Amino acid sequence: MADIFDTDFADQDLEMEDNFVSVGEEVNINQKDPTLKRILIGSGWDVNAFNADVADFDVSLFLLDKNGQTRVDEDFIFYNQTEVLNGGIRHHGDSRTGAGDGDDETISVYLEAVPFDIMQIMIVLSVYKGYEKEQNVSMARNAYIRLVNEENNYELVRYKMDADIEDREETAMLAAVINREGPKWHFKPLAEFYADGLPEIATKYGIVVKEH
């Protein structure tokens, strides 16, 4: 047991705090773990279960080229397209309630499977049929995005979103981006909001999506 009165104690790394990042910060995730090959993008949230119609949050990815656009439909990973790049990226399923502790939705990314002309992986949090149901991103509580080395379960970084989504009336947000810089990947929180939800973001990136 560490002696809290030991002067060396203050210099010890506090892993939980070290992982937290905010909008405006950027983290080289390969530098944090040089063994990194497979990442798990995890997102969690709580919603008010007492509401008759619980807000259904979804996590999606867009793979963008140097022009900030998708190349093909398969560059959009979401609840209706859960596996691309021959399994190199896999969405592990839709959580409609946010019930329980830990990650509610996860997406696995094998970094070496990502084509070299993909420069950015955009991470989106959206409310399913948010406009129609008059629901928005501020209905999520304890919301976060985190990246984990899937092979050793080491958490690389965590972005806690509550302060950024408070009182927002939009139905979707670009939560964060993973940027490619040569052989390295960098994680950066964004918190950019869109009133018209996932279809608006998809159209921005060259894909037309109709919510069902």
Write the layout of secondary structure elements.
Layout: H1 15-19, E1 20-21, E2 27-28, H2 29-32, E3 38-46, E4 57-64, E5 76-77, E6 83-84, E7 89-91, E8 105-110, E9 120-127, H3 130-133, E10 141-149, E11 154-160, H4 162-165, E12 172-181, E13 184-194, H5 197-204
Parallel strand pairs: 1-11
Antiparallel strand pairs: 2-13, 3-8, 3-10, 4-5, 4-9, 6-7, 7-8, 9-12, 10-11, 12-13
Radius of gyration: 18 Å
How many angstroms separate the termini? 55 Å
Main sheet attributes: strand count, strand direction, barrel closure: 7 strands, mixed
Under the CATH scheme, the architecture is: Sandwich
**Could you state the order of secondary-structure elements as H and E?**
HEEHEEEEEEEHEEHEEH
Q: How would you describe the shape?
A: globular
Q: What fold name stands as the CATH topology?
A: Lipoxygenase-1
Count structural domains: 1
| Fraction in beta strands | 35-45%
Model description:
This protein is mainly beta and 212 residues long. The chain has one domain: sav2460 like domains (Lipoxygenase-1), CATH 2.60.60.30. It is 12% helix and 37% strand. The strands form two sheets. The chain has a seven-stranded mixed sheet. It has a six-stranded antiparallel sheet with strand order 2-13-12-9-4-5. The chain is globular, with a radius of gyration of 18 Å. Mean pLDDT is 87; it is low at 1-14.
Which features does this protein show?
single chain, 212 residues, mainly beta, Lipoxygenase-1, 7-stranded mixed sheet, 6-stranded antiparallel sheet, 5 helices, 13 strands, disordered N terminus
